[in-house]
Design goal:
The complex is a heterodimer of chains A (253) and B (278). With 253 residues, chain A is of the alpha/beta class. Helix content of chain A is 35%, strand content 23%. In chain A, β7, α6 (168-185) and β8 form a beta-alpha-beta unit. The relative contact order of chain A is 0.18. The model of chain A has no long low-confidence stretch (mean pLDDT 87).
Chain lengths: 253, 278
């Protein structure tokens, strides 16, 4: 049974004072179901990150309503956010970084520690816990950030171009891994990206945004079976979805 | 590889470390330079280029230094100055950090205080010495006050600017993890500011020594500054230089102590250099 986890109605966000108003988002009404993987796709400045920050409760909308699990969005344990940069603290070891949410949320120490070790294994960093972030490559640092966001076991993952700063090869492999982990743990994922490929590879549905003001240009279903791998991206169906999304993006310009 | 192996020495060593005697070439050069300075010093005095009353030969200074060490009252003066410096430094650091923390986290307080900060920054703090002597007398209190007044300020500035340069996205991360303001301050901001704070602490330490000595120059009955002044009036220039060497040594030892603490506390700063090189 699938239930609606996120429901937004005519969400609008305006930045700036009276003199220089910028409408970042306008009329965003969407529903996202529990367990779904959704991508927010659009060019830079289309307000997709703003929308994600509103879902995270880090920004409040200027107009419209947002409900997550029946509540107004606010930072809480059930919602985890991941950023484009790993934002690891250089004074903490990898393990201490992963345990940061546990300290802030007062989670039981021993349980959290065991879980952190498990998560490091899950993201392929078994045995790296005592290292410092500066000893890790960019891709590895982002894996640590993934383990950190998963530590409090959130139901909803909000990912703001989490692999955007990485090279394409690393990004593709992390994308596949992320989708695998999300499926494995049954999490709902909202992913901001500007890569059409990434969006089609990971998502159940792709929300295409237009730029300035950010509006919804269209929603594309991606009904490919999981798990997907690199071979999926070679199929004609994959190319068809990519073309469909591109046409949405072009008409929106 | 453990954290210890990431100290700056090994960080630099990643591009072909010098081998054999070359590893010591810096130290050898330093000793050679010391020999050169001594040579120029001796030559300047013996040739008559500089009068012996202004600059006695190194031998005389060395003799005066050992004679000073042999006199009981020297240790009394040394102890007085050390207390003034350390107490002044300690209180100055507490004061500088606290005020810097308030101004670094509270924008309104910063806006209110900014004109005064700018004014105080421009003030040559030495002019306060006579005021403190008048207010607190010839004892240690006035010197401690002077050490505090001159040493708290760099730490205030460094703490404030360190706290103000925290990456906004890291704060967003903390907020998304339901962090309180207190969590954000202690787990992120202070740690981020730590390298800057330590740089301020090092400056403060040097200035605390300056403050105490200036205070003693202006009015005191004991302390190394007082002793140096007395020797100066008596034209015992070799003793003046001996005390100068003692003061320099105190400064160096305290500085090394802080640097050691810095390496232990702000270990990741050296790592950051490694990261930048990757």
């Amino acid at each position: 049974m699938t239930t609606t986890l996120i429901r937004t109605d005519s969400v609008r966000k305006v930045f700036g004072g009276d003199a220089e108003r910028v409408t970042a988002l306008d009329g965003i009404s969407v529903e996202i179901k529990t367990g779904e993987i959704v991508s927010l796709l659009g060019s830079s400045g289309c307000g997709k990150s703003t929308f994600l920050n509103i879902l995270a409760g880090l920004l409040s909308p200027t107009g419209g309503t947002v409900q997550i699990d029946g509540h107004a969005p606010r930072p809480r344990r059930e919602v985890g956010m991941m950023f484009q940069r790993s934002l690891l603290f250089p004074w903490r070891t990898v393990l201490e970084n992963v345990l940061l949410p546990a300290e802030i949320m007062d989670l039981p120490a021993e349980v959290s520690r065991n879980r952190a070790e498990e998560l490091l294994t899950l993201v392929g960093l078994d045995g790296w816990g005592e290292r410092y972030p500066s000893e890790l490559s960019g891709g590895m640092q982002q894996r640590v950030a993934l383990a950190r966001v998963l530590l409090p076991d959130p139901d909803l993952l909000l990912l703001d171009e989490p692999f955007g700063a990485l090279d394409e090869m690393t990004r593709e492999s992390l994308d596949i891994e992320l989708a695998r982990i999300a499926q494995l743990t049954g999490k709902t994922v909202v992913l901001v990206t500007h890569s059409v490929y990434e969006a089609v590879m990971i998502s159940d549905r792709v929300f295409v945004f237009t730029a300035r003001p950010g509006r919804l240009a269209g929603i594309v279903d991606v009904p490919f079976p999981r798990p997907r791998d690199l071979a999926t991206s070679g199929t004609p169906e994959f190319a068809e979805r990519v073309a469909q999304i591109r046409s949405h993006m072009e008409t929106s310009l | 590889m453990t954290i210890d192996t990431l100290a700056p020495e090994t960080a630099e060593a990643t591009d072909s470390p010098p081998r054999g005697w070359r590893r010591f070439r810096g130290a050898i050069g330093a000793v050679a330079l010391f020999g050169l300075i001594l040579g120029v010093w001796i030559w300047a005095v013996e040739s008559g280029a500089v009068h012996r009353v202004i600059l006695p030969p190194p031998g005389d200074v060395a003799i005066a230094l050992f004679a000073t060490f042999g006199e009981g009252f020297f240790y009394h003066h040394l102890w007085v100055t050390l207390q003034e410096v350390l107490v002044g430094f300690f209180i100055g650091v507490l004061l500088g950090f606290s005020l810097g923390a308030i101004l670094g986290t509270w924008a309104l307080a910063r806006e209110i205080a900014m004109p005064y900060i700018v004014a105080f920054q421009g003030l040559p703090k030495i002019v306060l010495a006579p005021v403190f002597i008048t207010a607190f007398g010839f004892g240690m209190t006035s010197k401690i006050a002077m050490a505090i007044a001159i040493s708290f300020f760099p730490l205030l500035i460094n703490t404030m600017s360190g706290l103000m340069t925290v990456d906004p996205e890291s704060i967003q991360l903390m907020r998304s993890l339901t962090a309180s303001k207190r969590d954000i301050f202690f787990k992120l901001s202070v740690m981020h500011a730590m390298p800057s704070i330590f740089a301020g602490v090092k400056t403060s330490l040097t200035l605390a020594l300056v403050g105490a000595i200036v205070g003693e120059f202006v009015g005191a009955r004991s302390g190394l500054g007082f002793l140096l002044n007395s020797y100066s009036y008596q034209l015992q220039v070799d003793r003046v230089w001996a005390i100068t060497i003692v003061l320099a040594t105190i400064g160096i030892i305290l500085y090394i102590g802080i640097e050691y603490a810095e390496k232990k506390v702000v270990f990741w700063s050296a790592q950051r250099a490694v990261e930048a090189g990757m």
